[in-house]
Amino acid sequence: MDILTINCPNCGGVVQRRRDEYFVRCPYCGSEVAFDEIKEEAQLEGYRAHINYLEQNENADRTSREAMVRWMRARNIVLAAMTLLYLIGFCVVGYDSEMDRDGEMWIGVPMMLISLGMYFFGVPTLAAAYPAYDALSKKTDKAGKVKMWIKLGLTGLGLFCVASILAYIIIRKILKV
Ligand SMILES: [Zn+2]
After folding, report:
1. What is the DSSP code (8-state) at residue 107?
2. Quick one: pLDDT at residue 86?
């Protein structure tokens, strides 16, 4: 039920009424308070403006959530492709050089170079595209992008370490070189 509020013209106390009441006795001073239509309209306008504001925020929220999902998908693809290329390239280079073959120059090394290129170009690109837009303050969170750059950079380094260890294990234990 809608409750309308007005300040008592006599004592200033907060007086509330239901929508179907037009005169209310002030609970503080006992005088009769009339709710006039102009004030009521103004209050309804206030409610309407508030509802519009909430709806706008909800839409902005949904848009930024969708942008975040797309960004995370792109990030996962870049990091996964980078790690996989590095892992396979490392295995080829390690295996071929142990076996004294020269395939690494044509397959392994280019794969590792592409992987490093993905790291050095992909991380800043992803950080710049990070949807760090705050819908409420309507400002881009620049510090958030910089933090994401550092975070992605460190994540990439970690993935290279994991891929190197995996490649070592694959070459030594599985290929038994
Ligand atoms: Zn009063």
Report:
1. T
2. 96
The identity of residue 13, as a single letter, is: G
Per-residue confidence of the chain (177 residues) as pLDDT tens digits? 577 788 888 898 888 888 777 778 888 998 888 777 656 677 777 888 888 888 888 888 888 889 999 999 999 999 999 999 999 999 988 888 777 776 667 788 899 999 999 999 999 999 999 988 766 666 778 888 999 999 999 999 999 999 999 999 998 887 776
Tell me the residue type at 170. Answer: I
CA dist 50 to 42, 163, 177, Å?
12, 53, 70
- 97: Cβ contacts below 8 Å, ≥ 6 apart: 104
* Cα of 176 from ligand 1 centre, angstroms: 92
Q: Which residues surround ligand 1, an ion (CB under 5 A)?
A: 8, 10-11, 13, 26, 28-29
For residues 144 and 127, is the Cβ–Cβ distance under 8 A?
no
**Prediction pTM value:** 0.66
Phi, psi at 137, each rounded to 5°: -90, -5
Question: Burial level of 82, CB count in 10 A (0-12/13-18/19+)?
Answer: buried
Query: What residue spans define the domains of the chain?
Result: 3-35, 66-174
Q: For residue 7, how far is its CA from the centre of ligand 1 (angstroms)?
A: 8
